[in-house]
Amino acid sequence: MMSPLQEKHQTTILDNFYKKINMKNFALKSLLVLFIFKANFFTAQDQEVLLTINGNPVYKSEFEQIYWKNKKESIATKDDLNEYIELFKKFKLKVAAAEELGLDTIQKFISELQGYRVQLEKPYLIDTSSNESLIKEAYYRTVNEISASHILVKVDPNAPAEDTLTAYKKINSIRKNILSGKYSFKEAASKFSEDPSAKRNGGYLGFFGAFRMVYEFENACYNTKIGGISEPFRSQFGYHIVEVDKTRKGRGKVKVAHIMVSTKVEDSELKKQNNEKKIKELYQKLLNGESFKDLAVEFSDDRNSARKGGELDWIQSSGSYYKEFESAVFSLENDNDISEPFLTPAGWHIVKRLDYVPLGDFKSLKNELKVKIQKNIRSDISKKTFITKLKKEYSFNENRQNLNEIYKLVNNKGFSTKLVAENKKKLSIVLFSFDDSIYTQFDFADHLSRSKSRNRGELKDYVNTAYNSYVNAKLMDFEKSKLESKHPDFKALLKEYRDGILLFEISDQMIWTKAIKDTSGLKDFYSKNKSTWMWEDRLKLEIFSSTNEKTIKKAYVLKKKGKLKNDSILNFLNKDSQLSVKFEEGKKNKSDLAFLSDIVLSPGLNKPFKFDNKFFVVNQLEEIPSAPKEIFEAEGAITAAYQEYLEQQWLSDLAKKYPIEVNYDVLYSIVNKPN
Question: pTM of the entire structure?
Answer without folding.
Answer: 0.62
